[in-house]
Amino acid sequence: MAEEHDAIVVGAGPNGLCAAITLAQAGLSVRVLEAESTLGGGARSGALTLPGFNHDLGSTVQALGLASPFLKTLPLERLGVVWCQPDAPLAHPQDDGSATLLERSVDATAEGLGRDAGAYRRLMAPLVQSADRLAVELLGPMGPARPPRHPLLLARFGLSGFRSATGLARARFKGSDARALFAGMASHSFLPLENLASAAFGLVLGTFGHAVGWPVVKQGSQKLADALAVHLCSLGGDVVTGHRVAGFGDLPPARAHLFDVTPRQLVAIAGDRLPPRYRRKLMRSRYGPGIFKLDWALDGPVPWKAQGCERAGTVHLGGTMDEIAASESEVGAGGHPERPYVLTVQPSLWDPTRAPAGKHTLWAYCHVPNGSTVDMTERIEDQIERFAPGFRDRILARVAAGPAELERQNANLVGGDINGGLQDLRQLFTRPVIKFDPYSAPTEGIYICSSSTPPGGGVHGMCGHFAAKSALRRSFK
Ligand SMILES: Cc1cc2nc3c(=O)[nH]c(=O)nc-3n(C[C@H](O)[C@H](O)[C@H](O)COP(=O)(O)OP(=O)(O)OC[C@H]3O[C@@H](n4cnc5c(N)ncnc54)[C@H](O)[C@@H]3O)c2cc1C
């Protein structure tokens, strides 16, 4: 059969779309095949609860999107992306009715940390000053295939980042507020906070919180995915939705096929074309914990007890560092904490298009073991009530999604893992397998471009961009 397209991308998540854009920018004809009826993968939005309420079905806080060296080069704003910046990126309330805030300014944040003000400034200020260069290093593959551009900066980051989050927080901070604030950010790693390199996630998210903010996208994350698709089309590419690829036979011929899927899915689709050794390695790649997600339509804003939470986009619930660390360790050991660490985001406070006037949306999840079937609704709502008494009285409607439901909505969320694989020290930079070029399979013309490759999870498109560059080097020399 004649090749109608130079390249086919399977999956229209942020990485699939960025892979396609990179190929189209090089003058190639590209088609993206998406299984679901709407494009965007983890950047989709829609009606979930009640008429007039718009919810992010996957990602909602787009700090990595704004920091992404590749997305920065695209005309996203011209294509309709409006970044809605909360007053403060993050609040972390405690039982005594106080809250610690991550403000846009390092100094303003430090002022709220009492005796840890100086330590916070010393830790974060140099990273924030170098945020652009750090993004280039950390949002890309590392290793021999791409030697560091800023080795000294990376080494300085590594001194703190390779530590455990609890180790770094105890060494740097004396007070419980700074420790809890840092632990909440580091918990985005999905790792027990005693694990090596869990500190890196706290440092990266804190740095981007100061440098670019933690915005939501006006009208939902879908707008970001739609903008990527419109840009792709303007470059001559296209996206076909409702086309699930089950095997190679479902694919039009092309010189390169790029897969925005996770290792297990790639084996299911292309296994008979892959050398057995590579196939086995892909199957050994480990998935991380899953999430249990809740979305609410609310009669009013969340009635936070602590002043300051109403100024934040994201509110981390879990109390002290020790309590959060215990909760994350329990998940890592296969358990379901009674009092889980809960990430909540209140998009409608910053984007009024999300709910009818006076009403609000709330988005939240907690971590659960991969494939968990436990309903965490009560425990998550108990945690919110703990810091916002009267919350339940404001609920107009709720929709819960555990790992199985999430995977039904997006096949990449294997067992509820939203990062395409565990992001521990062993797998962070060597995903999906240890390989000089992690994006290319040993079979000519097959590439993996999802968050299962470096630099991993998040809506930044960098995995797709680097996978496409690999394809350009190898299949289109
Ligand atoms: C609930 C949730 C909350 C999150 N919160 C955040 C956040 O706030 N900020 C952030 O930066 N990141 C967040 N993330 C993570 C982020 O969404 C992902 O890391 C990102 O979307 C990964 O992009 P991707 O393109 O690799 O994969 P995905 O976005 O998962 O896209 C993969 C696409 O491939 C399609 N596909 C799969 N199999 C096939 C097949 N066989 N045939 C055709 N198509 C197929 C899927 O339908 C999907 O559209 C969140 C994710 C989830 C699910």
Short key terms for the protein model shown above:
477 residues, alpha/beta, FAD/NAD(P)-binding domain, seven-stranded mixed beta sheet
Question: How are the SSEs placed, and which strands pair?
Answer:
Elements: E1 7-10, H1 14-25, E2 30-33, E3 45-46, E4 55-56, H2 63-67, E5 83-84, E6 88-93, E7 99-102, H3 106-111, H4 117-129, H5 131-138, H6 151-161, H7 165-172, H8 176-186, H9 198-211, E8 216-217, H10 222-234, E9 238-240, E10 256-259, H11 263-270, H12 276-284, E11 290-298, E12 312-317, H13 321-332, E13 342-345, E14 360-368, H14 377-387, E15 395-401, H15 403-409, H16 425-428, E16 446-448, H17 462-475
Bound molecules: flavin-adenine dinucleotide (FAD).
Flavin-adenine dinucleotide binds next to helix 1 and strand 11.
Q: What does this molecule look like?
A:
This protein is α/β, with parallel strands linked by helices and about 475 residues long. Among the domains are: about 5-50 and about 60-80 and about 215-285 and about 420-475, FAD/NAD(P)-binding domain; about 110-210, no CATH class. About 35% of the residues lie in helices and about 15% in strands. The chain contains 17 helices and 16 strands. The protein has helices spanning about 15-25, 65, 105-110, 115-130, 130-140, 150-160, 165-170, 175-185, 200-210, 220-235, 265-270, 275-285, 320-330, 375-385, 405-410, 425-430, 460-475, and strands at about 5-10, 30-35, 45, 55, 85, 90-95, 100, 215, 240, 255-260, 290-300, 310-315, 340-345, 360-370, 395-400, 445-450. The strands form 4 sheets. Strands 7-6-12-13-14-11-15 form a 7-stranded mixed sheet, sandwiched between helices. Strand 1, helix 1 and strand 2 (about 30-35) form a beta-alpha-beta unit. Helix 1 (about 15-25) packs across helix 17 (about 460-475) and helix 6 crosses helix 9 (about 200-210). The longest helix has 14 residues, at about 200-210. It starts with 6 loop residues before the first strand and ends with a helix. The model has no long low-confidence stretch (mean pLDDT about 95). It binds flavin-adenine dinucleotide. Flavin-adenine dinucleotide binds near residues 10, 11, 293 and 418.
